[in-house]
Design brief:
- By secondary structure, this protein is α+β, with helices and mostly antiparallel strands.
- It has eight helices and twelve strands.
- The strands form three sheets. It has a five-stranded antiparallel sheet with strand order 1-2-9-4-7. A four-stranded antiparallel sheet has the order 3-8-5-6.
């Protein structure tokens, strides 16, 4: 379903995104005027590798899974994005087609801005360009850390680091993705992930609650895993 954004909906969508946070209310309305709204059902592909990009996708509600598929058909989860986050930014600066796949993990609403309009905004409001660069830097750092972890650390160490990074201050983890996707993201099979989580629980380091909740019972023990 594709429609023109209502001014209010488009503005609300823009207000949620950090890259537009320094704009005035009037400037946000200007962005909203060149924004389209589109909805996707759970499991629907937003875009696929090989598609022509040149669009900035802003998530208004729901979650999106960004993946890449290897030559052997193995799926690698790159990141999970939620409300206020954006994707498709790399296609704005490269003539190549999309490299990733974007899949709706839930029913979602998105605001979409054509690439030419985004570039005009960046020229008019340089803070937008700096914010995009800042976000790209953060994503690059996360990608480099993930590559380092996969190459240098044991399965147990990678899982321990992931749990520590995902936990809230009180030691609770609410998974934003399935365990299958989590396993793919940190470079192991789903079976290995399940075995290691069960092993951590058996020795009293964590407690598993249902499919999406994990409580860290012994943070020090996780930090000491090599």
């Amino acid at each position: 379903m594709l429609c023109n954004c209502h001014e209010r909906d488009g503005k609300n969508c823009i207000e949620m995104v950090p890259i537009f946070s320094n704009l005035t209310q009037e400037e946000m309305l200007e962005v909203a005027h060149i924004t389209r709204e589109k909805t996707f059902k759970k499991g629907e592909m937003i875009y696929m590798a090989g598609d022509k990009g040149e669009k900035l996708y802003v998530i208004h509600s729901g979650k999106v899974k960004i993946t890449r598929i290897s030559d052997t058909g193995k799926e690698q989860v790159i990141r999970i994005l939620g409300p206020g986050e954006f994707m498709g930014e790399l296609s704005l600066f490269s003539p190549e087609n999309m490299k990733d796949n974007g899949e709706a993990l839930e029913d979602i609403r998105m605001c979409i801005i054509d690439g030419d309009n985004v570039k005009k905004l960046m020229i008019k409001y340089p803070t937008i360009a700096f914010k995009v660069m800042e976000e790209l830097g953060k994503r690059l750092e996360k990608a480099e850390n993930l590559i380092e972890n996969i190459n240098l650390y044991s399965v147990e160490k990678r899982l321990a680091e992931t749990l520590l990074n995902m936990a809230s201050d009180d030691g609770e983890i609410k998974l934003k993705m399935s365990k299958r996707d989590l396993a793919s993201h940190i470079g192991m099979s789903q079976e290995t992930l399940s075995r290691k989580l069960s092993a951590f629980q058996e020795i009293g380091i964590i407690k598993l609650i249902g499919h999406r909740r994990i409580i860290i019972l012994n943070k020090s023990a996780l930090e000491e895993i090599e």
